[in-house]
Amino acid sequence: MEEGPGPAPALDAKDVLAAAERFPRALAAPETRRWPDGEFLDVALRAVRAEERQGYIERLEAFVEQRRARLEEILRTHEPGSRPASHSRYALIGQPEILVILERMEAAPFLLRSEWQKELEIVFLDDLEFAWGPRIRLSR
Known about the structure:
- There is one protein chain.
- The chain is 54% helix and 0% strand.
- By secondary structure, it is an all-alpha fold.
- The chain has one domain (13-29, 36-132).
- It is globular and about 40 Å long.
């Protein structure tokens, strides 16, 4: 009797966060970051499907490399201290977890929104969606 695949590997939030922090050009300076808890990261990681967990860090790294210019632009226009950020609704921009959130926004937008709505204020995701400018607007 042939056994099916084992359970999907768990994603370690610390490892994912460490991978995201290797991209300083896409992140605000550490002293200007907010949201020190992992609440947003945990929700975004729940939007990683079981079949995507194996090699997810490499997928995240590829996403950041492929969209480096776009990430730098969103940081430049919405970074902590910028006019849009003064309303606190863009406070996640510049945080390491933003890379995971944006990657999930492109890879699994409906799943991300579903997980987000269970625990977090949807206005943060709506504003990130607006700033990032994805092809699909789930909130509109």
